[in-house]
Every structure is written in structure tokens, then in C-alpha cells.
Amino acid sequence: MSDASGRRAGAWLVALQFLLLAALAGSALPHWNRAAVPALAIALATLALAVGLAAVKANRPGNFNIHPEPRAGGRLVEHGIYAWIRHPMYSALLLLALAAIAVAPTLPTLVSAAALAAVLWAKSSLEERWMSERHPGYAAYRARTKRFVPGLL
């Protein structure tokens, strides 16, 4: 894949990511009733927030962007939450998708969450290709960490 086609693919993946997040919100929010929100949904959303904040703390704004192509001059972050998983921001989004399923276990929510997982897998794969090209230490980092879930995936 050329850089130009990779950038186009990355732009489509970003658009799909936001479309699917909107679909998840659209399918879960109508079911959101404060008195009846499952404890599991609250726990997953809280964990998503913690993972997202840990990612921002370790990888300061300006070193990352929403597109899978790394920023020019960006550095490889291997500390904090990045010592365990390579894509904690995507992990946070997947946790939010699971929270949406806990709130509204409907077919549209399940399909949107599964599609989001596929998009984030594709987006992270593209990002990892570029990270490997730009950071000589990325292969070793990749070998000792998981993509989304510490010790599992």
C-alpha cells in the first residue's frame, strides 16, 4: 500500500469510526434511564474514562492525532499504560462500546460495536505499519505488548 492509498484508507477509517460511534450513541442513548443503568455499563464507562485519561497522560497531546499516520517528529511512547497495550485510546472506545451494549443489548448496538471493533483493528494495523517504518524500536515494543487488552489481545 502506498503512502497516498494508506492515507486515504486512514481517512475512511476515521470517518467510519465516528459514524459507528454516533450509531452506538444513537442506539444506546434512548435506553439511558438513570434509575436503570446497569452497574456493568457504569463500570465499563468508568474504566474507559480511566484508560483514555491514562493514554493522554502518557502520550501528551501533540504527539498523536486522530489519523492512523503518526505525526511527523512524533516519538514512540512506551511508558505508562503504553507499557502494557499499544492502542489504549482504541481500547477506551471499545470499552465504551461494551458499555453501550450493557445499556442497550439490541441488534443495532451489537452490530455497531462489532463494526467499530473491526474498524479499530484495521486502523491500528495501518498505524502499526507506519510506526514500524518510522520507529526502529517498534518491532521490539510490539513483541512485548498487546494491541488492546493487556495479556490477551
UniProtKB/TrEMBL annotation:
Its main location: membrane. It is found in: Endomembrane system. The lineage of its organism: Bacteria, Pseudomonadati, Pseudomonadota, Betaproteobacteria, Burkholderiales. The chain crosses the membrane at residues 35-56, 93-122. Pfam families: PEMT. This is Protein-S-isoprenylcysteine O-methyltransferase Ste14. One of its GO terms (cellular component) is endomembrane system. It comes from Rubrivivax gelatinosus (strain NBRC 100245 / IL144). It is a multi-pass membrane protein. Keywords: Membrane, Transmembrane, Transmembrane helix.
